């Protein structure tokens, strides 16, 4: 990632690079990394001028924000930290910013634990859960169920093109959960063996639409047809105050190299220099609320149509405020 902000600390740029390249992944993990990066920027800023300090913090926030446009946890984290920046001197601004970032990170860790406890209540001893992609919120529900003494099995979709499902499978295996790893196209076949579909979310719109890793929507449609309940695990950090429907959320389009290597492109086109092949690689899709049974948060579980009430409680009656660093 090219750094166009000369006042941004190199550690912040490195964090942004990791987020953009998906070395740092998962909405909660991204939010935590962003808050930590802003604290680092505040700690290392060398200016003695309050206006320059604020300018550098907002430049750092902009650098981080530009990495992943769909995951609303990122701008929500940045908003939270920046709104806590207060004071008339650099010393005061620095202290309040760092304290706010630490507060956010502590709340984030506690929220995921509470969410897991809520989600665990929906799982019964002996349940088989089908997962998609890699979600720390979804995993927290399974971890809490295991801590409650429940026996759980998992069917894990590998989730191409980056195969984040392999990370989920590895974590579950470390916890002693029996795992069946399947290719994405086999999901319909194995839904008959599942008691729940459990996924995370990168954003949730006010109408209850769920924006998550590409393939979630198709899985939810098939699950609905099979009568398998779909549970979405998402901290309130994932609620998107800028949008009323999921279809207005910007969907990140990732590089074609995640889908095709150079030699594969040559095989398909017949010529390595042929630019006629179009490869599209959307990172997310939108699952309509009618295909979701429950959205589990640290504040409880909600039917999708009730999410707008929770959003108003958290963000006020006026939503739709665009991100501004």
Automatic annotation (TrEMBL):
Substrate binds at residues 25-28, 68, 212-213, 238. InterPro entries: IF-2B-related, IF_2B-like_C, Initiation_fac_2B_a/b/d, M1Pi_N, NagB/RpiA_transferase-like, R15Pi. It comes from the Archaea. The keyword Isomerase applies. Signal peptide: none annotated. Gene3D superfamilies: translation initiation factor eif-2b, domain 1, Translation initiation factor eif-2b, domain 2. One of its GO terms (molecular function) is translation initiation factor activity. Keywords: Carbohydrate metabolism, Coiled coil, Initiation factor, Isomerase, Protein biosynthesis. It is an enzyme of class 5 (isomerase). GO terms for biological process: L-methionine salvage from methylthioadenosine; pentose catabolic process. Residues 94-121 form a coiled coil. It catalyses: alpha-D-ribose 1,5-bisphosphate = D-ribulose 1,5-bisphosphate. Its EC number is 5.3.1.29. The active site is at residues 133, 202. Belongs to the eIF-2B alpha/beta/delta subunits family. R15P isomerase subfamily. Catalyzes the isomerization of ribose 1,5-bisphosphate (R15P) to ribulose 1,5-bisphosphate (RuBP). Reaction proceeds via a cis-phosphoenolate intermediate. HAMAP family: R15P_isomerase. This is Ribose 1,5-bisphosphate isomerase.
